[in-house]
Design a protein that fits this description.
By secondary structure, the chain is α+β, with helices and mostly antiparallel strands. The protein has a domain of 107 residues: 3-Layer(aba) Sandwich (Aminopeptidase). Helix content is 28%, strand content 38%. It contains four helices and seven strands. The chain has a seven-stranded mixed beta sheet with strand order 1-2-3-4-5-7-6, with helices on both faces. The protein is globular. It starts with 5 loop residues before the first strand and ends with a strand. The chain binds coenzyme A. The site of coenzyme A (COA) has 20 residues, from strand 4, helix 3 and helix 4. Coenzyme A binds next to strand 4, helix 3 and helix 4.
Length: 159
């Protein structure tokens, strides 16, 4: 639990929100795995209806974000990240739960996600109730050309 943590949702393209997310993105993702998005990719997905970006901050300083895209009654968690100095204090879990409750409040019945098999975030998703669906061999290509399997997870919010 981080005192003073604020979670703000953005549903329209917003260059300040994209800048806040990029501040975290550039620090949170290990370049070895090639998982980080560019500002252009993030701004592009924000133009799609049903997409929302939640920024976590303390005293207006961004420390994490979650990006979700929904289509009809399904949604996908596209990205979740917390700035390394702020990790292990519940911000990732708060962003995930906030994304799930936003989805529920919109009548969305399931959330899907893909995560690198070796990512410690797998424990976070399992604790939140996500269930393993399948493995995609070699789904991510790292900067060094090495391939990494992805695991697909899903939570049924009607259960
Ligand atoms: C995954 C990530 C968002 C977690 O953020 P966080 O704020 O540190 O997570 P929390 O403190 O809320 O931890 C929640 C749970 O995640 C798991 N977890 C997080 N970091 C962990 C670690 N280093 N080792 C083991 N488990 C870990 C634990 O199950 C933890 O629950 P617990 O505190 O009850 O043990 C963060 O590590 C991150 O930004 N990673 C890089 C980006 C990334 O890979 N995102 C996921 C794929 S898009």
């Amino acid at each position: 639990m981080i005192p003073g943590l604020s979670l703000v949702r953005h549903e329209q393209p917003d260059r300040h929100a994209v800048a806040d997310a990029m501040h975290v993105m550039d620090r949170a993702f290990d370049p070895v795995y090639g998982e980080a998005w560019t500002a252009g990719q993030l701004a592009g997905v924000m133009t799609m209806p049903g997409t929302w970006l939640t920024i976590a901050s303390v005293d207006a300083a961004p420390l994490g974000f979650a990006l979700v895209r929904s289509v009809l009654d399904e949604c996908e968690l596209l990205l979740l990240a917390v700035d390394p100095p702020w990790r292990g204090r519940g911000a990732g879990r708060d962003l995930l739960h906030h994304s799930l409750s936003t989805a529920r409040s919109r009548g969305i019945t399931s959330m899907n996600l893909e995560v690198r098999a070796s990512n410690l975030a797998v424990a976070l998703y399992e604790k939140a109730g996500f269930e393993y669906v399948h493995r995609r061999p070699g789904y991510y290509r790292g900067k060094d050309g090495q391939l990494h399997d992805a695991l697909s997870f899903r939570i049924d919010m009607l259960l």
